[in-house]
Design brief:
The protein is mainly α. The chain is built from 20 helices and no strands. The protein folds into three domains: about 120 residues; about 120 residues; about 110 residues.
Amino acid sequence: MLDVMLHQSQRVQSKVSLGRELDDIFDISDKDGALSHDALVAMSRLIHIIHPAMYSLRNSHGISSSHFTWLTIFMGELCRDEQMELDVICNCISDIKHLLSQMIDVSSRADSTSFRSVLHAITQLRLQPGDFVHKEPLASSFVAMQVGILDLIRVLVDQGAFPITDIPTFSSEDSFHWDISQPQLSDAVSTLKRKTRMMVRDRDAQFLSIIESIAVANSGGAITPNGICASWLDDPRNDILVRSCIYAAHRWMVPHRSFSDGKAQIFSFLSLLDCERFRRPDLSHWGEDLALVQRTLIVTLWRAWCVRLSDSMKGMEVDYASDHSDLVENTLTALKVDTLHILDVKWYIQDLVVRLGQRHLLLGVSVGGSEVLLALDEVLCEISEFEM
């Protein structure tokens, strides 16, 4: 088996009749069935040799989708091999993703039990908490793999392979979900090399985009008392997905940073305000994540105020005491927290004071807006006293 693989590898590298050689190589797995650990390693190396060459073939020789099944099964075997190094697994999955992207009519084969099982296996791959600091090359490979598979899922959804209400690894019925909890805090993100940092950002933005599409679709697009996504976000089965959204938002928005490409709109995830347990966070539910949730809530409310203040500055009549009582109430409640928990969102509180102040000077401010402005000033005084 291994000798055959090595022989095929040499033939691929010579680039002689590359299209025919690829079909021969893929047929190896069909004939030999299950692969040992050594065979998995050899095959992963072979795939790594093949996939760059696919770009030279994408206009002249697509890969038959008949190879979709064994390639996806191979990914599952890699994930379940306890002897396999994580970086080997991640790099090979990324390579296979490129091969799948070159297949003809891949969407017709994607919505299968076997492929869903493989996606579940991929989501169970985990980094250790310190890997982004001490093993950044490994962390980079891991995130690149996540970005690639999330991108593939999004493409398959767009092609109609999966219904938006039942996307594998994002469904309420799934017990397997993506781990995007690392790197935990923005301080860790800032120490990463730019390439890795941008991949983490792309992964988080991709994840939030998928979640928002699912939340809206599963809520039927109907307006509820709290918003269009309330029914899905409030479902306890989706709690791990909601937490992941909060991790992603907090990672990029706390403390404040400038975005030149509009990403702030993505990471200050307004749909979270449709979730009751996010708007009213308590220790019994959030545990050690409570402070993180409270900070993310203030950032999300800041974004909501920015949108509504922008409307009012355009001449629209805005009565915060009545028309937007939800925003006033949520803000006043969110500010009643331990000052220590919100030191890192001081910028957002200061910025909102400025925005409300400008609105007051130009147009006058409603009773609700005045109440919020007073509460914000009080919190800033508390923060100043704490920092002394």
